[in-house]
Amino acid sequence: MLNKLWLGFFLTAAAAALYRWLAIGDPDVFRAMVASLFDMARVSVEGKMMSVPVRMGA
Question: What pLDDT does residue 22 have?
Answer without folding.
Answer: 96
